[in-house]
Amino acid sequence: MFKRTGLLLALCCACFSARAADLPVITVGMVLPLTSPIKDLAEEIRNAATLYLEQNKARFKALGYTIQIKVVDDKDDEVEGVDQAKNLIADSSILAAIGPLTSDMAINIQDLFVSANLSLLVPSATHTAITEKGQGIIQRLVGRNDQIAQASADFISETLHAHSIYILRDQSGDGRDLCDSMPPILLKDKIKTLGVSSISIAEEYKKIIKSIKDTKPEIIFYCGKYDVAAALLNLIRKENIDTFFIGGDTLGTSGFKNLAGHAAQGVY
């Protein structure tokens, strides 16, 4: 995460407009869900950026600038996200911004940054629609969901040699997008989809687990936020279902590992 955020800040410098020459203090904005169920990853990105700037003060000083960060909290809420995006855009010292964390929020606010001609560097959101109409203003650092789907299918087929899968998704836009990207690729790789379930409330977990038991897939593939994944995985393991649990990049976060505990072992 430190190297990733360091690259983002380096890209921010490259995105600064000509008016940066008149600003001895340049601000990099950050919009992250710091008070939300997925705050762990948001805090990692914020802390990595802060550490990177602290360790590179001399480098920026040699260029004639003092670089600082302004962090706002979108609370993983659409209305709050718009308000905080406008807050950053209104600050004339901000020449580029990092964030947000989720695909839903990125899609929600990206048009504001395009209209303001303010560069937005998205560190973790994977929805295929991000950057589609950004006109060079919106940049991403991670792969799109269609790329994740293809890489996942290749891994399932070529490494795990599995032939059946059950897909789970939460209600996030990112979860839906990754879920929708999977079936055509799986079909091409001759991996049979035994079921697709969406999760909106905790009461649905038991029904989903029963469906998994009945269909007996070789792979459970999860699409969505890591807090829902961790809760569901713990219940699955308590039912003594030892099926491979695989998913998008959210399953590689420390937040997922912290919430899932020992159940996170062996997750791809």
Salient structural properties:
four-stranded parallel β-sheet, disordered N terminus, five-stranded parallel β-sheet, alpha/beta
Word description of this protein:
The chain has 268 residues and is of the alpha/beta class. Helices cover 47% and strands 19% of the residues. It has helices spanning 2-15, 39-55, 57-62, 78-90, 103-116, 145-159, 173-188, 205-215, 226-238, 254-260; strands spanning 25-32, 66-73, 94-98, 119-122, 138-140, 164-169, 192-198, 219-223, 244-247. The protein has a 5-stranded parallel sheet with strand order 2-1-3-4-5. Strands 7-6-8-9 form a 4-stranded parallel sheet, sandwiched between helices. The longest helix is centred in the first third of the chain and has 17 residues, at 39-55. The protein starts with a helix and ends in an 8-residue tail after the last helix.
If strands are numbered along the chain, what order do they take across the biggest sheet? 2-1-3-4-5
Q: For the terminal residues, how far apart are their CA atoms?
A: 18 Å
Oligomer: single chain
The main sheet comes to:
5 strands, parallel
Counted by DSSP, the helix tally is 10
> How much strand content do the residues show?
15-25%
Low-confidence stretches: 1-5, 16-21
